[in-house]
Amino acid sequence: MFAVPDAIAYDLWMDLPEEIKSYYGQGGELERLERGTGLLEAERTKELIARLLPERATVLDVGGGPGYYAQWLAGCGHTVHLIDPVPLHVETARHRAGDSPCFTVELGDARELRFADGEWDAVLLLGPLYHLPDRADRLAAWNEARRVCRPGGWILAAAISRFAPALNGIRVGWIADEALFETVRMQLERGWWHGGDHPGFPSAFFHDSDELVEEAETADLTVQAVYGIEGPGWLVGDFDEKWADPVMRERLLWLARTTEQDPRMRAVSDHLLLAAKKPI
After folding, report:
1. pLDDT at 12 (0 to 100)
2. Predicted local distance difference test score (pLDDT) of residue 98
3. C-alpha triplet 169, 24, 19: angle, nearest 5°
4. Distance CA 128, CA 29 (A)
5. Residues in the chain with pLDDT < 50?
6. What does DSSP assign to residue 229?
7. What is the pTM of this model?
8. Chain centre to alpha carbon of residue 144
9. Of 33, 95, 153, 261, which one has the greatest count of Cβ atoms within 10 A?
10. Where do you find CATH 3.40.50.150 in the chain?
11. How far is it, in rounded angstroms, from Cα 146 to Cα 140?
12. Which residues face 246 on adjacent strands?
């Protein structure tokens, strides 16, 4: 496993915005994909990744959080290395990897990867883009992903849909708050979400499909598709009860698959997944 000097860990941690440190440092991501609508997000994300990746690929999981997808990918036979800027995530991922680690982990920044050109068969950006509200920072992450990916390899990047906060606010009810409603209005216009007093989520940038494609193409990637991950199923009431029903669970997954590339429905998903290749 890679050893990272304490000074590097300290610098990475101190460079993060305070609200990011507060949210993720308290464990906001540790079990998110294992409960509530995160279950639908996780199931569909795995389904799409499995559909696209070659067998036994070398995979760099950039911003891989506490290692949920890294553990799953390793179990599928891939060689996986995870980087994340949050020490709690790195510690949790190392624990998840086990004593004889099934994947490796280190602290790192999506905008400055320490790997050689063309080192990886596939690069995942499932977390970094929506916490890089500055376009220059997002393009730096895209460019680094392209650089370390082999020619012809996959880059799979997730984003939160532009409409997700408004839809979630209506679903849960917090949008009735006037200050939060004004924040949502600004976010719909500009893509930038000011977390402020919003319960549970720091400031972020939310994409529409065209913006996501434009950023990938600016980084000289060849876009293959943009998928809506969850479809509209994440908006249902009593989600846990419906997910526990095998028939309803399959219907939710069926609807997500059916609408995943329909431009009329894709934006209703909470998250988008862009699949691109590095040109040969």
Report:
1. 63
2. 95
3. 70
4. 13
5. 1-5, 197
6. S
7. 0.91
8. 16
9. 153
10. 6-161+207-277
11. 10
12. none
